[in-house]
């Protein structure tokens, strides 16, 4: 029980870190265009991060992404030590990339850590089939959307920007800017709702995997053993976990992540209020679509692609491709590096 409590505490700590690491996703453009001050922006984003809980629970009626995360690794290779190692690795990578101001994916570092620790555990099990460690039906769409999410965000943002420019081509520039500054409050709120619904559920999935393991293998609880879907049983019996997950995400967002805000808001391309509306709306559309299908995507990747999309509408050179390529490398490396770190941590934990 002690180890389960430690995992839950660390999972909520990761959720909090995820919030301030990814605060830039929701507020970068609204700060860059000076619609809100940084303090106002994080309060705005944090509120809608938390409100996403009520949409997920009472409107959507389920937590599909949390369920997907819990099942990325075969249950035969899940232990509390595996989950603990994965969490520690994810926290370490998140803090490192935050320190360096790199908007990497908190989602992918969590998934990478979980898988890396599980693979390390499989090597310690006699006769284990390494090909069955990873649930590829769940993982392959996640890997695919490392590349698809930013591309979708970029394409949708490009179309929205072109559409807006054509509709408003005869509008008074000053009056139009005033309206778009107001609309940015709406688009930022929509994206923050998508961010909260997407990222908060990932921690729920990890906690769910730990709780299910504990009830099945330690307590031998028939309610979990005989359940058609143990994750739904976990949600029903541990109802405070989803609420706390969304709350911790919101609190983390309130703490900000100013280095990453600078990268997202100005280093990729200069953003106007019109372009901010287009980027945030495109990001929200992408997040809502992938959430509908239960695919955990990176909100960081999504909004970055959307910002690039609005930059391209001006000219290709308006995007600082050197910065973008550096971000791409961070995205590609996140899962494998997190997996290696988690594997090493797992072997260290086994020594004790």
Number of strands: 0
How many angstroms separate the termini?
17 Å
DSSP helix fraction: over 70%
The mean pLDDT is 85
Helix count equals: 15
Shape: elongated
Summary tags:
78% helix, 352 residues, mainly alpha, 15 helices, single chain
Short note summarizing the structure:
With 352 residues, this protein is an all-alpha fold. It contains 15 helices and no strands. It is elongated.
Fold topology:
Layout: H1 2-21, H2 23-32, H3 38-60, H4 64-70, H5 80-99, H6 106-122, H7 136-167, H8 173-218, H9 222-225, H10 230-237, H11 240-254, H12 258-267, H13 273-292, H14 299-312, H15 321-350
Helix pairs in contact: 1-5, 1-8, 1-11, 2-3, 2-8, 2-12, 3-8, 3-11, 4-8, 5-6, 5-15, 6-8, 6-15, 7-13, 7-14, 8-10, 8-11, 8-13, 13-14
How would you portray this structure in words?
The protein contains 15 helices and no strands. Residues 263-268 have low confidence and may be disordered. It is mainly α and 352 residues long.
């Amino acid at each position: 029980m002690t180890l389960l409590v430690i995992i839950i505490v660390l999972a909520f700590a990761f959720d909090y870190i995820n919030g301030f690491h990814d605060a830039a996703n929701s507020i970068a453009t609204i700060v860059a265009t000076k619609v809100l001050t940084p303090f106002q922006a994080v309060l705005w984003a944090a509120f809608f991060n938390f409100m996403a809980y009520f949409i997920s629970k009472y409107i959507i009626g389920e937590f599909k992404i949390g369920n997907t995360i819990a099942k990325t690794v075969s249950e035969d290779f899940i232990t509390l030590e595996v989950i603990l190692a994965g969490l520690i690795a994810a926290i370490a990578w998140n803090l490192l990339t935050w320190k360096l101001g790199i908007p990497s994916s908190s989602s992918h570092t969590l998934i990478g850590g979980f898988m890396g620790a599980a693979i390390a555990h499989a090597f310690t099990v006699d006769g284990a089939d390494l090909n069955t460690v990873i649930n590829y039906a769940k993982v392959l769409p996640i890997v695919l959307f490392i590349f698809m999410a930013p591309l979708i965000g970029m394409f949708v943002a490009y179309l929205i920007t072109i559409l807006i420019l054509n509709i408003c081509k005869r509008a008074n520039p000053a009056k139009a800017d005033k309206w778009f500054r107001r609309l940015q409050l709406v688009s930022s709120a929509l994206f923050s709702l998508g961010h909260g619904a997407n990222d908060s559920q990932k921690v729920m999935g990890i906690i769910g995997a730990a709780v299910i393991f504990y009830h099945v293998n330690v307590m031998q609880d028939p309610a979990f053993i005989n359940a058609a879907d143990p994750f739904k049983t976990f949600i029903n019996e541990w109802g405070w976990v989803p609420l706390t997950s969304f709350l911790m995400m919101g609190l983390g967002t309130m703490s900000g992540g100013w280095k990453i805000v600078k990268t997202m808001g100005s280093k990729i391309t200069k953003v106007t209020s019109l372009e901010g509306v287009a980027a945030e709306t495109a990001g929200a559309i992408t997040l809502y679509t992938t959430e509908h299908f239960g695919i955990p995507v990176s909100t960081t990747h999504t909004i970055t692609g959307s910002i690039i999309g609005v930059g391209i509408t001006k000219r290709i050179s308006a995007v600082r491709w050197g910065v973008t390529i550096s971000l791409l490398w961070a995205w590609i490396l996140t899962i494998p590096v997190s997996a290696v770190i988690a594997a090493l941590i797992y072997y260290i934990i086994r020594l004790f």
